[in-house]
Amino acid sequence: MKSAVLTTAILLSIGAASAAPAPVADVTGGSNDERIARLERILKAKQQSEFQTQQRLDVLQQEVLDLRGLNEQQSYQIEQMLQRQRQLYDDIANLSAKPAQLPAVTSPSGGNASASSTLGETASYEHAVNLVLKQRKYDEAIPAFSDFIKQYPNSTYAANANYWLGQLLYNKGEFDSAKKAFETVVNQFTESNKRGDSLVKLGMIAEKTGNASSAKVYYQKVLKEYANSAAARIAKQQLAAL
């Protein structure tokens, strides 16, 4: 009898244990829905980070393309100057052989100038540029560009010469003099491809001299007039940092 009762009790205990729901062990904490929600948030954050990274890469790639284009343009301009110089040397050689047939060359101002004066203009500009690019003699390049600008204020190289001068002075921290050079490009050479860059530099000078409001005006002008340029991207970055 006791054995039957014990057996019955054991069976009832087993049945009760089987009927009770087993507890769910969650090693990470929270329910399945909460874990899924956390995973979705992590995935969303990761996707957003990757998207932002791709955007930055796209901007950097475009800037590289713009710089490559500028480099190609400058290389072409330099090649054109070299060809002009070689032609002028040939002309001088021919004229030296026939001094009685010296032709007059019309200057941009309408007067007559000898071929040697034209050669002097090109050679003077190339000399100043070479002091920067080839010889790295930046202090010597400053008076070289200044002299060129004084002697040839209406030269086709005048805008670039003023920009070079402004950049060299800016690098030395001579902001007042640099500002005058960049303002010359902006105000007198409105068609120059250096005008947008000069506006950016004027903004940077305004920042460095504690005039944030003027800097903002310069940067906004770049964004308005040169919206798709490398100068505009720099101006946008500078504005965001103000």
Automatic annotation (TrEMBL):
Q: Does the keyword Cell cycle apply?
A: yes
| The organism of origin for this protein | Shewanella atlantica
Can you supply a Gene Ontology BP term from the record? protein trimerization
Q: What is this protein called?
A: Cell division coordinator CpoB
Q: Does the keyword Signal apply?
A: yes
Gene from which the chain derives? ybgF
Q: What region holds the YbgF trimerisation domain?
A: 32-102
Annotated Gene Ontology cellular components are: outer membrane-bounded periplasmic space
**Which keywords appear in this protein's UniProt record, sorted alphabetically?**
Cell cycle, Cell division, Periplasm, Signal
Pfam families for the chain: TolA_bind_tri, TPR_16, TPR_6
Q: What does this protein do?
A: Mediates coordination of peptidoglycan synthesis and outer membrane constriction during cell division.
Q: Which family does it belong to?
A: Belongs to the CpoB family.
Check the record and name the NCBIfam families matching this protein: tol_pal_ybgF
Q: What InterPro entries does this protein map onto?
A: CpoB, CpoB_C, TPR-like_helical_dom_sf, TPR_rpt, YbgF_tri
Q: Tell me where the signal peptide lies.
A: 1-19
**UniProt superkingdom:** Bacteria
